[in-house]
Predict the 3D structure of the following.
Amino acid sequence: MLRYALRRIAAMVPTLLVIVTASFAIIRLAPGGPFDQEQTLPPVVRANLERLYGLDAPMLEQYGRYLRALAHGDFGPSLRQRDFTVSELIATGLPVSATLGLCAIALAVLLGIPAGIAAALARHRSIDLGLSTLVAIGIALPAFVTGPLLALVFGLHLHWLPVAGWQVGSPRYLLLPAVTLALPVGAYLARLTRGGLLEVLRTPYVRSARARGLGAARVLWRHALPPALLPVVSYLGPATAFVVTGSLVVESVFGLPGTGRYLVQGAIDRDYPLVMGMIVVYGTLTLTLNLLADLAYGWLDPRARQEMVAYG
Amino acid sequence: MAEAAAPPAPGWWSNAGERLKADRTSLVALFGLAGLALFAFVAPALSPWEYDSLDWQHLAMFPGLTASHWFGTDRLGRDLFVRTLHGVRLSLALSLAAGAVSLLIGVAWGAVAGFCGGRTDALMMRFVDVLYSLPYLFVVIILTMLFERGSLVALLVALGAVGWLTTARVVRAEVLAVRGREFIEAARALGLTPAAIVLRHVLPNVLGAVVVYATLIVPQMILFESFLSFLGLGVQEPHASLGNLIYMGAQEMESAPWMLLMPATILVLLLLCLNVLGDGLRDAFDPRGR
């Protein structure tokens, strides 16, 4: 198991290198540059700027320089947000984005899994139908629709919560964005839980547990639920990637000072180091979380663990 | 070599058609979708306004029948009804094209990986895994940078580039299952080239999975497209897409809530119909999955 984990961690390095190389190549092939603004700069100023940031060197040399700096944890300066390094920008946004993401995932798990269990136990009765309809709507509604709608209803009409903005340590500002982000994930978790539990409840060992006279609660908690939740665990990896993506929109809808705007604005401004920095940080994050989800899966499922040990 | 590609099973398509006809929810979704599409293509012609014409007399007007602004107007006096349907048209066309592109790439990639096996397979699928592990929007945003802002080609490439991953996985798994069967061996023994075997004998057998997946890819593409346009990376003004209309609506929702509600309602209807229809088709083509 440990060997498997180490091997996977070691495999992350070449994967990241591929991601960095590919992104670097594509971003640099892109037309336009960071210094294209409404007013065209005099050629001399432009050349000086390019020399200052090392953009006049041959592409391969720039790539080598970037990798060397990256190995030292240096993402370089932002080309458009003057006086800030990429690390500083990401460091100011990351706490907000991380709080939002963690709250959304927690909320999704707390809402989705119980809803899925309730739907599976009430199979084909009105509770199940009602929940399944809600789930279908929750999955179909994108965050950029639910977000503004929630803000419209709870912020502008009912005045219960702020429409947008952020204050450190104030959960009032966090609630609507977190709910917006959690809804589709929670809905998907509910669907996975329902499906998994229904399948397990049909298996012979659950029947025999019932036949041995075990109470319904004990059958559910001890026998049926743990294997039923396996697909849920393996979805948590992709779910975090989904939350990262969704937070781009949610941060934009609710005006949160997270990292999302750096990626979008960086892409529009052609702020090369900023976009690269975001890709490295979030690429590492999603790869790590996927690995953790896989390890958790192996820890929960002895069959998968054996396979991991065998191939580790 | 006069043998025709054998259909997966006699009456397979018509069986699926029968099952779909019996599924009332899917039929409602199908008609809703057809109605919406037809409406989007025909109805703008009934309105006296163009998607970019400005009506200075009616700026930010509430929806109503006066001046035939049925969905109201935006802050520049542009007719929201025409703009919303313009957006639906653009979204549908883009997502169908992007869906087709990603299906083509996905099927080719998955078929080659699955049929060749071994090192080729490992390498090709590793590539898919890497792309899969990144948040797709990152890939899309990087790819849109390759083109001028707002170019439709950029959108098409970016959307197609993320859509094929799941198709490739599904097709590869199906091809792996078919690869070892006797009729493939027979085809090999008859001296067919690998390309001919894949095209004539393997692909027809994995078509079922592809059809099922194809129906789910279109709503996904609509979602991605609106997502990008919402963020300002997709369709640009003065062109309308459901995404940038919703973005404008969200900016103005305090004074002109209809600017948000109209395009949002249409988008939700569109996505719900497509999702329900996709689920229905999946059940119709693959009754085991129920």
Remarks:
- The first helix of chain A runs from residue 2 to 29.
- Chain A has a mean pLDDT of 83.
- The CA atoms of residues 114 and 190 of chain A lie 7 Å apart.
